[in-house]
Amino acid sequence: MTVKKKGATEAAGEVIKGGFSLNKFKKNKGFSNTSVKFKSQDWIPVSKAFQDIVSLPGIPIGHITLLRGHSDTGKTTLLLEAAVNAQKQGILPVFVITEMKWSWSHAKTMGLQFQEVVDKETGEIVDYEGFFIYVDRGTLNSIEDVAAYITDLIDEQRKGNLPHDMCFFWDSVGSIPCDLSIRSQKNNNEWNAGAMSTQFGNHVNQQIMLSRKESQKYTNTLVAVNKVWTARPEHPMGQPRLENKGGKTMWYDASLIITFGNITNTGTSKIKAVSKGKDYEFAKRTKVQIEKNHINGIQSRGALIMTQHGFLADDKKAIDSYKDEHKHEWTNILGSSDFEITIEAEVGEDNLNREMID
Description:
Layout: H1 8-17, H2 22-28, E1 43-45, H3 48-54, E2 58-60, E3 64-69, H4 75-89, E4 92-97, H5 104-110, E5 115-118, E6 125-129, E7 133-136, H6 143-159, E8 166-173, H7 179-184, H8 189-210, E9 220-226, E10 228-231, E11 241-244, H9 249-253, E12 256-260, E13 269-275, E14 278-293, E15 301-307, E16 310-313, H10 316-325, H11 327-334, E17 340-343
Parallel strand pairs: 3-9, 3-12, 4-7, 4-8, 8-9
Antiparallel strand pairs: 1-2, 5-6, 10-11, 12-14, 13-14, 13-17, 14-15, 15-16
Helix pairs in contact: 6-8
């Protein structure tokens, strides 16, 4: 006698007929259907020039965005553009500055709103106040300190003591060691990478992503600048590659990764105003590439002009317009209103001295 096995659909049908209710079961176990719902995707806008080149509205809210590349390639410019617009949206910018290259003057030029607190007796600026939070190496000495600081603010937010969505701007990953490196007086990258994985991959980064759920009152975002180094090719005929200082925790957890410049060098070209033997470097052309995009999948690359006021499109019309807008400032520097714009040739990859690559 042959016994016919029941198919999955038939078996499920018999269970349902028997009075089983999956919805009732989930309710009895406290599994709420609302826990699977996420908030609609919103963005912190950045300059139109940047939006056009990457085909994205800006920085995705509720996600981790990683900005990586060599020094002076546009990472801080994008960070400040996002911070300025976060402030306008009522999202509290939280600056975690461990690289110690912060400039309040540059932030003001970019449009960040704050008040300078001046000592009445000396006339010196002693503090800055406004809709932001700022902390640097004066308070934070290790990766663990940074993680604890971010976690504390999220806890205060959850308690109702900090009633704002927040965007954390960390500049930069790889610029600060872990506790073990400090205690041993050896800045060991493997130890630092381990601390990043433990503190951020297993905790802080999860807190950021979980804030996207509808069940969470506030939504938090993390924009992290990551210092990089150029690694030797894995194969004799291979190409050098960029590696992130502090390990790959942010790489794995980031929803959006934007790389600036070349792999083996900055890849930037200087743009100058020149008059009567004097020149003034007012901008740089930089390359930009979307390397990872788990928001809408778009990956693009191109070139932009970065200035102290933000990004411009890489075309003559945009540069000439910027020149006219700031002509009076450059006249004071060059001593003349009659000047020309010169642009260096594009900087290519330097793959010749591979033995010199660290």
